[in-house]
Design a protein that fits this description.
Number of strands: 19
Order of helices and strands: HHHEEEEEEEEEEEEEEEEEEE
CATH superfamily of one domain: Glycosyl hydrolase domain, family 43
Helix content: 25-40%
CATH class of one domain: Mainly Beta
Shape: globular
Largest sheet: 5 strands, antiparallel
Radius of gyration: 36 Å
Structural class: alpha+beta
Low-confidence stretches: 1-28, 30-37, 62-94
Mean pLDDT: 80
Number of helices: 3
Length: 430
């Protein structure tokens, strides 16, 4: 009997042990499942947090873009209101919002195209937006804004019923060129000078001007001479005013190395059809900036032998020791030398005029005040280009900063105003 009981006890003990082992195994499985669940929960929590951070970042970016757009919109409106004054502000309020949107959208597209290296797309965007932006800037107002984009050192050429305006290099290329039939609505034509002379340094061309001689158009421009680093003047030719102009010269037309270099060329023709060129030497080693003139050869691509004639040096206080940007014009039989004086990057820049005896001077020094200086509509005007319109009206094209936006990185936009003669002295006005 005892052995049977003992066997039964052993069986029961083994059963209990087996049950415990099963329970322990189940407990381990449960603990493992719980650990896995906790791990998955931590992963899911981390992913959720990352998604929340991503959503927050995207939302912040969207808010920032919206804020930037609002700021840009408000800045543009404020700038134009400041430009036009109370009357202009009232006009701006009457504009359809789509006009403002078209201007802003075109400028943004052009900026993006420039950043992406697509110059032609930038030119197309600016052209498409120029009408809307001009309307915002109040072309028909007394300010005289003609083209509301960066257009420094302008030169306007009248050809038949059309106007061609040229300006210092920009994203559009070496020489900007725009075309208009009414001086108010302009089409961007791109780069008038795709390739510089072999001696010229790329990316440093400015102050272009053009003359029509026979069947040829000659474009003069300033560039840096690779051999010396000085600024010099060259000439390029084309069979049409919009170019493309070609320059195969091996040496500059004018390059006064001992006088600090030569810049700001401007051609003109006397009553007999004789062409001349006027320009500025920078001055150095005690030599002041000087405006010069010399007769051109019949083709207009070179100067006749001989020394140039000095026309003007700074003597008036308002000039700040600088005279530049010359433009010689025959106004009713009186030769007038229009020029700029003072620091071009300040509101003190202005336009003066000197009466000259003939196309090669002399032009007696004058202490008269400038005929065009900073005012409510613009600051630091300069780069005068006087031309006769298709209606016979004499006008001046010039660049200027907008009030409160003087100096880099702001733009110098194109203005056009009428020129009259009052008591024998040229005057500029709306």
């Amino acid at each position: 009997m005892v052995p049977v009981v003992a066997a039964l006890v052993v069986v029961l003990a083994l059963g209990a042990l087996a049950a415990d082992l099963v329970g322990v195994a189940a407990l381990h499985r449960t603990q493992a499942t719980l650990a896995t669940t906790r791990h998955d929960l931590r992963v899911d929590t981390a992913r959720l947090a990352q998604r929340r951070r991503s959503v927050a970042a995207v939302t912040a970016q969207a808010d920032a873009r919206q804020a930037d757009a609002a700021t840009t919109f408000e800045s543009l409106v404020a700038a134009h209101q400041h430009l036009a004054g109370a009357q202009g502000a009232a006009s701006l309020q009457q504009l359809d919002l789509s006009t403002l949107h078209s201007c802003l959208n075109g400028v943004m597209q052009a900026t993006a195209s420039v950043a992406g290296g697509d110059t032609q797309a930038a030119v197309d965007a600016i052209t498409s937006a120029s009408g809307a932006c001009t309307a915002l800037d109040g072309t028909q107002s007394s300010s005289g804004i003609a083209y509301p984009f960066d257009f420094p050192d302008p030169f306007v050429l009248t050809v038949g019923s059309e106007y061609y305006a040229y300006a210092t290099n920009s994203a559009a290329g070496n020489i900007q060129i725009i075309q208009s039939s009414d001086l108010a609505h302009w089409t961007t034509l791109g780069d008038a000078l795709p390739h510089l002379a072999p001696w010229a340094k790329p990316g440093a061309t400015w102050a272009p001007s053009v003359i029509h001689l026979g069947d040829t158009y000659v474009l003069y421009y300033s560039a840096v001479f690779l051999g010396t680093g000085e600024q010099c003047i060259s000439a390029a030719v084309a069979t049409q005013p919009q170019g493309p102009f070609t320059d195969t010269s091996t040496v500059p037309v004018a390059c006064q190395l001992t006088a600090g270099g030569s810049i700001d060329p401007s051609p003109y023709v006397d009553a007999a059809g004789t062409p001349y060129l006027t320009w500025k030497s920078e001055g150095n080693a005690g030599q002041p900036p000087t405006i010069w003139a010399q007769q051109l050869d019949p083709a207009g691509t070179g100067l006749l032998p001989g020394a140039p004639t000095a026309l003007l040096q700074p003597t008036a206080a308002w000039q700040g020791g600088v005279v530049e940007g010359p433009d010689m014009v025959d106004l009713d039989g009186q030769w007038e030398l229009f020029y700029s004086g003072n620091d071009w990057s300040t509101a003190g820049y202005a336009v003066g005029v000197a009466a000259c005896v003939g196309p090669l001077g002399p032009c007696p020094a004058s202490t008269s005040p400038p005929i065009l200086s900073s005012g409510p509509s613009f600051s630091g005007p300069g780069g005068a280009s006087v031309f006769t319109g298709t209606d016979g009206t004499v006008r001046m094209a010039f660049h200027a900063w907008l009030p409160g936006e003087v100096g880099f990185p702001h733009s110098r936009v194109l203005f056009i105003q009428r020129v009259t003669v009052v008591a024998g002295v040229p005057a500029v006005g709306p």
